[in-house]
């Protein structure tokens, strides 16, 4: 019986399926590892999510993600799924998903560029607005992200507005109102943390506190049941 695989750690130059060359590993988690790869035929960079076989029994996890990403292919905030491939490695059949590669900085790296590693309320509200507007497309299709945090948000451009991509969704079972509400609470938590978290919260203006609701879930969800309601609130809120 083949031994369980806890890590791949494919080196730079490793070839997958005679189609892709590994450039570097960019992430790892409970389900697998994510690499930037180069398509051999075209030299186009892609992202490859490679699943640990014990987290993808009977290919259920990869199939779930592929179908979900296909369903959400019109959502501009999500990284677009392209295809599925398989390789044999250390006695296991391994599945990996190929998606578009997006350039930019993850939100945690992006925050490193700010004085004190935190945003002003004006900047943070615009970030929250971009996230809410993007997730609104997902929630409108009765789906959820399931794992919103700094490392899963890519900032592609920042000027008058943010251009963002979110990736690496998590499977908490079928879509439910509770999953959607979790996304909303996670958006508020990201906003709160971008402003400096608990250390700076007491000194934040009332407009910020009206959004954060002291991070009390019941109060947040009383105002915003989904990302669309949050987006609408931000468009109409009074800075005074």
Detailed description of the structure:
There is one protein chain. This protein has a six-stranded antiparallel beta sheet, with helices on one face. Helix 3 packs antiparallel against helix 4 (177-194) and helix 3 runs antiparallel to helix 7 (227-236). It is built from seven helices and nine strands. The model has no long low-confidence stretch (mean pLDDT 93). Helix content is 33%, strand content 24%. 31% of the residues are buried. The protein starts with 14 loop residues before the first strand and ends with a helix. It is an alpha+beta fold and 240 residues long. Strand 3 and strand 4 form a beta hairpin. The longest helix is centred in the middle third of the chain and has 20 residues, at 121-140. The protein is elongated.
Oligomer: single chain
Radius of gyration: 19 Å
Residue stretches low in confidence (pLDDT < 50, at least 5 long) are none
The end-to-end span amounts to 67 Å
Calculate the mean pLDDT score and round it: 93
Strand order of the largest sheet: 1-2-3-4-6-5
Protein structure class: alpha+beta
The SSE order reads: EEEEHEEEHHEEHHHH
Strand content: 15-25%
Main beta sheet: strand number and arrangement? 6 strands, antiparallel
What percent of residues adopt helix (DSSP H or I)?
Answer: 25-40%
So what's the overall shape?
Answer: elongated
Task: Specify the number of helices.
Answer: 7
What's the β-strand tally?
9
